[in-house]
Design brief:
- By secondary structure, the protein is of the alpha/beta class.
- It has five helices and five strands.
- The chain has a five-stranded parallel β-sheet with strand order 3-2-1-4-5, sandwiched between helices.
- α1 runs parallel beside α2 and α3 runs parallel beside α5.
């Protein structure tokens, strides 16, 4: 079994990463990190992935980091991964929203919550971590 994690180099992504490591360690399973390929061109993305690898090594979690398949959306890749028979849980970082913002969730989060085959956990960052 595996914990699938959506990783984007944001405060929300880092919160999901920490939660994903904890879940994988608690469930005694591996962690499959799917990094948003659209974010790969952002400054610091590679440093973020390096930091994620160090955190996983320190947590003693077996992991593999993949990127979105070219030409496919992040949501499509996460949903496909959720249909893998080994997928036990999908972890997704979510940002806090205003009352109006709650009406419309982000398109990736909404699609994954509605279409994923396995259970999905939406992780919000601590209030102090938001900028």
């Amino acid at each position: 079994m595996s914990v699938i994690l959506s990783y984007v180099p944001t405060v929300e992504g880092r919160g999901a990463l920490t939660f994903g490591f904890t879940e994988a360690r608690m469930r005694a399973t591996d962690l499959v990190v799917i990094a948003d390929g659209d974010s790969a061109s952002e400054p610091g993305f590679e440093a973020e992935l390096h930091s994620a690898r160090e955190e996983a090594d320190a947590a003693g979690v077996d992991y593999r980091i993949t990127r979105n398949e070219p030409g496919r959306s992040h949501a499509d890749n996460l949903i496909d991964a959720s249909y893998d028979s080994a997928a036990e849980l999908l972890v997704l970082g979510m940002r806090r929203r205003s009352p109006v913002g709650k009406l419309l969730m982000g398109s990736v989060a909404q699609r994954v919550l509605l279409e994923a085959q396995c259970p999905v956990v939406g992780v919000k960052p601590p209030v102090a971590a938001e900028v």
